[in-house]
Amino acid sequence: MCQAHWSDLRTALDERGLTHLISTSAENLVERMESKEDQGFDPLFSASIEIMAAALRDGGLALLQSDKCPLCEAEKSVRGLANDWIEGCSDDQLRRAKELGLAAVN
Ligand SMILES: [Zn+2]
User: Fold this and answer.
1) Are 13 and 89 in contact (CB under 8 A)?
2) Which of 46, 81, 99, 101 is most buried when burial is the number of CB atoms within 10 A of its CB?
3) Residues whose Cβ atom is located within 5 A of ion ligand 1
């Protein structure tokens, strides 16, 4: 994922109050995945997987074999799609965090 879209995704998760659940490093991510308290949930990691899965459905395996940003590719095919994916998968992470009791329900 390109820097601009990575940053947009982080902002969308931050707007949903999920920043405290994002791993601070690769080591931290592994710890979180194994932690009972965090229930293996990291919204940024989970959102990137979701975006990659959506890109694979739409763009096929060719995308995996390149280092193209899935969101830039989505945006090229449909204007506004990258933002829809970011907002949609960030909403999914908020829902999941609430289900896990990791985010305030309001
Ligand atoms: Zn991009």
Assistant:
1) no
2) 46
3) 2, 5, 69, 71-72
- Give pLDDT tens digits for 22-58: 999 999 988 888 888 778 899 999 999 999 888 888 7
Q: What's the whole-model pTM score?
A: 0.86
- Cα–Cα nearest to 96, from 38, 28, 27: 38
Q: What are the residues whose beta carbons fall under 8 Å from the beta carbon of 72, sequence distance 6 or more?
A: 2, 5, 82
Listed in sequence order, the residues at least 6 apart from 50 whose beta carbon sits closer than 8 Å to its beta carbon are 89, 92
Taken as a whole, the chain contains a residue count of 106
Q: How far is the CA of 36 from the centre of ligand 1 (A)?
A: 33
> What average pLDDT does range 60-86 have in this prediction?
85
